[in-house]
Amino acid sequence: MNLAHNKSRLGQNLKGWSKNFVPNQNFVVSKYEDLISQLKSCKQTPEIAQIHGYFVKTGLDQNPFNLSKLLASSVHNIQYAASIFEHIQNPNLFMFNTMLRGYSISDDPKQAFGVFNNLRARGLLLDQFSYITTLKAVRVIMNRLLFLAK
C-alpha cells in the first residue's frame, strides 16, 4: 500500500474514536487492538505521528504499553523516537532497550552509551538485550573506525 492510502485508512479509523463517542466495552477493545495493529504496520513517520497525536489527544499516551509500541514503531527514525522517549516520565526496561536498538542501527550509535548509562543510573536491572544492543553499537563504531583507518 502507498503512503496516501495508509494515511487515508488511518485517518478514517481514528475518526471512529471521537471523545464524544461512548461505545460498549467489546467495541473499545476491538478498536484499540486495531489501532495497535495499525501502529505495528506503520512504516512511515507521518503515519506513526498521526497515531502518536491521537494517543496524546485521548490520553492513551499515559499507558506504558502504548508508549512501548509507539517507540518500537518509530525506532527507524531515531530522532522521532528520542523525542518521544525524552517525554516519558518513567521509562521501563523495554523502552530503554528499544532506544538502545534504535541507536545501534542509527547514524549516531555513540548515543547508545548515554542511554545505557541512563538506564544503569536509574537502577533498573539490565537484561541480555541491554548488553547485546550496546555491544552492537560498539561494533558499528569499531567497524567505522577500522574502515577509516584503511
From TrEMBL:
InterPro entries: PPR_rpt, TPR-like_helical_dom_sf
Keywords annotated in UniProt: Repeat
Keyword Repeat belongs to the record: yes
Taxonomy, superkingdom: Eukaryota
Positions of PPR repeats: 92-126
Identification of the protein by name: Pentatricopeptide repeat-containing protein
Upper taxonomic lineage: Eukaryota, Viridiplantae, Streptophyta, Embryophyta, Tracheophyta
